[in-house]
Amino acid sequence: MCRNCHRTFARRSDNGPGACVQHAGCFFGETAQRWLAPGENKSQGGAVSYFWSCCGAADRDAPGCVAQPHVSYDD
Questions:
Q1: 23: Cβ–Cβ under 8 A, 6 or more apart, which residues?
Q2: Contact yes or no for 20/68 (Cβ under 8 A)
Q3: Contact by Cβ (8 Å): 74, 9
Q4: Which residues pair with 28 in a beta bridge?
Q5: Nearest of 53, 70, 60 to residue 4 by alpha carbon
Q6: Longest dimension (CA), the chain
Q7: pLDDT tens digit string along 44-72?
Q8: pTM value?
Q9: What's the rounded Cα separation, in Å, for the pair 13 and 49?
Q10: Residues 6+ apart with CB under 8 A from 27
Q11: Pairing between β-strand 27-31 and β-strand 66-68 as defined by DSSP bridges
């Protein structure tokens, strides 16, 4: 089992340079207030934008942005 993407891989020969595809960051949300200038207060009704911190993709199920070989727990 790969310790990065948690998928199983049967043989090391199946483990190529792009076998493990994942996001390097985390999926989180921020309110619009963060992007306003100091002292500016435009209420967006608490609207939160969610996105991956590594690539900015807004879909939680977006394909990973980092491809690398699988890393086993034995490595």
A1: 52, 54, 55, 57, 62, 64, 65, 66
A2: yes
A3: no
A4: 51
A5: 70
A6: 57
A7: 556 678 899 999 999 999 999 999 999 88
A8: 0.66
A9: 41
A10: 50, 51, 52, 53, 60
A11: unpaired
